[in-house]
Amino acid sequence: MSARMLDGRALSKEIRAGLFERSLRIRNKGVVPGLAVILVGNDPASKVYVRNKSKACDECGVMSKIFSFPGTVSEYELMELIAELNVSNEIDGILVQLPLPGHVNVRNIIGCISVNKDVDGFHLYNVGGLVVGGTIFPPCTPYGVQLLLEAAKIEVASKNVVIVGASNIVGKPMALMLLQKGATVSICHIKTRDLSLYTRMADILIVAAGKPGLITADMVKNDVVVIDVGINKMSDGSITGDVDFDSVKHIASWITPVPGGVGPMTVTMLIENTIRSAELRMSINQL
Ligand SMILES: Nc1nc(=O)c2c([nH]1)NC[C@@H]1CN(c3ccc(C(=O)N[C@@H](CCC(=O)O)C(=O)O)cc3)C=[N+]21
Ligand SMILES: [Mg+2]
C-alpha cells in the first residue's frame, strides 16, 4: 500500500478561489486588499518565493507592492519604510522576507510592523496570542499545515505529534497550535539525542529541519501521517524535502509531496491573512 497524498497545490487552488470571492466582496465596497513585501539583497530563493507570493496576490484580487533594497540597506531605512506602510490606507499586510543580511537585527525590524498588519504572524504580540490560544494572524506555514490536516479529516486531538525543527517560523508556532487542538506534542531539534525514538512514536510527524533525507522508512511507524516542510535545493536544480519520500510513502497513511505540499499552502495562508486584515479595516471604516 502507498500513502495518500496531501495535495497542497490542489487544496490551495480551492482556497484561492474562495479568497478571490472574499476579496471581490470587499473591493465592491471600495476596499482593495493590499500586501507590501520587503525584499532585501539578492538571494535567488527569496526572489522565487516573492514572485510566487505576488502571483498568488494577482490570482486572489490582492494588490501587491514589492519594495526591493540592496543587501547594504540600513536598519533605519527599513524602519522608515515600515513606519510609512504602517499608516498607509492602501496596505493591509506587511511582510519582510527572511532571511535578512547579518547586520540587520530581525527582531528590531519585525517589532516595527504594526500588529494589525503583521500577516506573517511574527510580531511578539501575535506570537504571544498563539501562546494563550488565539491570534488574528496565525503564521502561514503552520496555518497551512493545519488546513491540510483538516481537509483530509485527520484528527489531531489526542494524537502524538512529533515536530522535528524548532524554528520561530515553523516548529515552535506549529507546536503551540496543535497543543491548543489537543495533541500531545514533542518538539525535536538538531541536538535531540536518538531522534528516531521520538519519530517512531509519532502518529503525525512534521519535519522542518532543512536536511534532505533526514527521515527514512526505519524511523517511522506504520500508518504515520507525514508532513514535510523542508525545501532543499539540490545540485541538479530540483527541490526536495527532509523526508525520504520514496521509502516512507510505503509506510505512511498520508504524506505531503515536495514540491506541491506545504509550500503552496504557505503562500495561500499569507493571502488569507491579508484579506482578513482588509476585512477588518473595512469593518472599522464602517464604525
Ligand atoms: N517573512 C517571511 N515569510 C515567509 O513565509 C517566508 C520567509 N519570510 N522566508 C522564506 C520562507 C519559505 N517560504 C516559502 C514560500 C513558498 C514556497 C513555495 O511556493 N514552494 C513551492 C515550490 C517553490 C520552488 O519552486 O522553489 C512548493 O513547495 O511547491 C516555499 C517556501 C516562505 N517563507
Ligand atoms: Mg512543499
From TrEMBL:
One annotated GO molecular function: methenyltetrahydrofolate cyclohydrolase activity
Residues that bind NADP(+): G165, A166, S167, I190, I231
GO annotation, cellular component aspect: cytosol
Reaction(s) catalysed (UniProt annotation): (6R)-5,10-methenyltetrahydrofolate + H2O = (6R)-10-formyltetrahydrofolate + H(+); (6R)-5,10-methylene-5,6,7,8-tetrahydrofolate + NADP(+) = (6R)-5,10-methenyltetrahydrofolate + NADPH
Superkingdom of origin organism: Bacteria
InterPro entries: Aminoacid_DH-like_N_sf, NAD(P)-bd_dom_sf, THF_DH/CycHdrlase, THF_DH/CycHdrlase_cat_dom, THF_DH/CycHdrlase_CS, THF_DH/CycHdrlase_NAD-bd_dom
Enzyme Commission number(s) from the entry: 1.5.1.5, 3.5.4.9
Domain Tetrahydrofolate dehydrogenase/cyclohydrolase catalytic, chain residue ranges per copy: 6-120
SUPFAM superfamilies registered for this protein in UniProt: Aminoacid dehydrogenase-like, N-terminal domain, NAD(P)-binding Rossmann-fold domains
GO biological process: L-histidine biosynthetic process; methionine biosynthetic process; purine nucleotide biosynthetic process; tetrahydrofolate interconversion
Domain Tetrahydrofolate dehydrogenase/cyclohydrolase NAD(P)-binding intervals: 139-280
Pathway(s) the chain acts in: One-carbon metabolism; tetrahydrofolate interconversion
Family matches, as Pfam families: THF_DHG_CYH, THF_DHG_CYH_C
This protein's UniProt keywords: Amino-acid biosynthesis, Histidine biosynthesis, Hydrolase, Methionine biosynthesis, Multifunctional enzyme, NADP, One-carbon metabolism, Oxidoreductase, Purine biosynthesis
Keyword NADP: yes
Coiled-coil ranges (or none): none
Gene3D superfamilies found in the cross-reference section: Leucine Dehydrogenase, chain A, domain 1 (3.40.50.10860), NAD(P)-binding Rossmann-like Domain (3.40.50.720)
Assembly and oligomerization: Homodimer.
PANTHER family with a match to the protein in the record: C-1-TETRAHYDROFOLATE SYNTHASE, CYTOPLASMIC, C-1-TETRAHYDROFOLATE SYNTHASE, CYTOPLASMIC-RELATED
Function: Catalyzes the oxidation of 5,10-methylenetetrahydrofolate to 5,10-methenyltetrahydrofolate and then the hydrolysis of 5,10-methenyltetrahydrofolate to 10-formyltetrahydrofolate.
Family membership noted in the UniProt record: Belongs to the tetrahydrofolate dehydrogenase/cyclohydrolase family.
Protein name as annotated: Bifunctional protein FolD
Source organism of the structure: Acidithiobacillus ferrianus
